[in-house]
Amino acid sequence: MCLPILWLILLSACQPTPAMVAVRVTLPPTQGAVLLATAAPTTAVPTRTPTATLSPTPTLTLTATPSATLTITPSLTPTLTLTATQTLTPTQTLTPTVTPTIAPVDFYAFRRPFTRDQIDYADRTYPYGMGEMRGLPVHHGLDFANGRGTQILAIGDGTVYYAGQDIDVLYGPIPDYYGNLVVILHDVKSLDGLPVYSLYGHMQRIDVTAGQRVNGGDRIGSVGDAGVAFGPHLHLEIRVGVPESFSSVRNPDLWILPYPQFGTLAGRMTYSDGTPVYEGTISVKRAGLDNAVLRYAYSYNIDATIASDNIWRENFTLGDLPVDTYTVFVSDRNGRVHFTQDIEIEAGKTSFVEVVIPKP
Ligand SMILES: [Zn+2]
């Protein structure tokens, strides 16, 4: 019987470091003054005053070309914190391995679509990427279960890209999937330079028109159940690249700013041959307390219609976790627990876990 070998890497989030701005100033050679002096003859009778001629008049021309170029490159040097003391089941051997990983960068570019006096947290029973194993359509966004007519707010500054029905223009897998929707092209770009959109589905009323400028927090419409919806709620998506593409979605947990004193757990779960684990279960409970599982998520199928982030390359998230130390349990789709590990959730940051489990 071979022994499973596990790795776990805990990555601290780090910010990209803007490149230094260099301005080169080029000066022409400074022209020197020429002093012409005529010495007085030693036997001179007439007294002559030596004359000095300054020629030419020194001129200084400063030529500076204001051509500074600011290039912001996401840092690809993450600060890795490796916890090499994982406690595994007694027969397992842990070989901690630090793998070069693309820098996890927190890019919580957006605010929430509801005010705090409304339900402004996502329905965690139907997270991003869940679907097939529950007999539901694979979820491409997050749901906010507010009542019909609740005001929906733009999550960031931008321009309305689309406002109306998706009957003639397809945004989902079938016509009239989102019913009434608004799509906003935001002023920010993704870290890999692509346009970023937010999509609001199943709306009852739309209060904006295409081409209109909006600021984060502006009212854009109200909650409804138009299209394919089980009761009134807001379905919110982040799309990167092509806005009409159903497969251009990204996980909103990585884009919407957590509450103060909340953070996000994200990670990537793969088999030892590098292929992603689909429908693995990631559960958390508060460390040191003998209480029940607080939250759980399933790793999603990034080989199908759900995409992971180009920078994070995650295949699961648990958004909005209060700052604390959590015990993370990782199990496969058969319920076998592969390991447990404590991890810190920090305010306004994403804690990233990379999990490798043996190929069955
Ligand atoms: Zn939804």
Structure write-up:
It is a single chain. With 360 residues, the protein is an all-beta fold. 0% of the residues lie in helices and 35% in strands. It has strands at 5-11, 25-26, 34-37, 52-55, 63-64, 80-81, 93-94, 142-144, 151-153, 158-165, 180-189, 195-201, 203-206, 213-214, 219-223, 234-240, 249-250, 262-271, 281-286, 295-298, 316-322, 324-331, 337-345, 350-357. Strands 8, 10, 11, 12, 14, 16 and 17 form a 7-stranded antiparallel β-sheet that branches. Strand 22 (324-331) and strand 23 form a beta hairpin. The chain is globular and about 50 Å long. The site of zinc ion (ZN) has 4 residues, from loops.
How many β-strand runs?
A: 24
Radius of gyration: 31 Å
Main pleated sheet: 7 strands, antiparallel
Helix content: under 10%
Backbone shape = globular
Keywords:
24 strands; mainly beta; single chain; six-stranded mixed β-sheet; seven-stranded antiparallel β-sheet; 360 residues; binds zinc ion; disordered N terminus
Task: Give a quick summary of the entry.
With about 350 residues, the protein is mainly beta.
Reconstruct the topology from this structure.
Elements: E1 5-11, E2 25-26, E3 34-37, E4 52-55, E5 63-64, E6 80-81, E7 93-94, E8 142-144, E9 151-153, E10 158-165, E11 180-189, E12 195-201, E13 203-206, E14 213-214, E15 219-223, E16 234-240, E17 249-250, E18 262-271, E19 281-286, E20 295-298, E21 316-322, E22 324-331, E23 337-345, E24 350-357
Parallel strand pairs: 1-7, 18-24
Antiparallel strand pairs: 1-6, 1-24, 2-5, 3-4, 8-16, 9-15, 10-11, 10-14, 11-12, 12-16, 13-15, 16-17, 18-21, 19-20, 19-22, 22-23
The protein binds zinc ion.
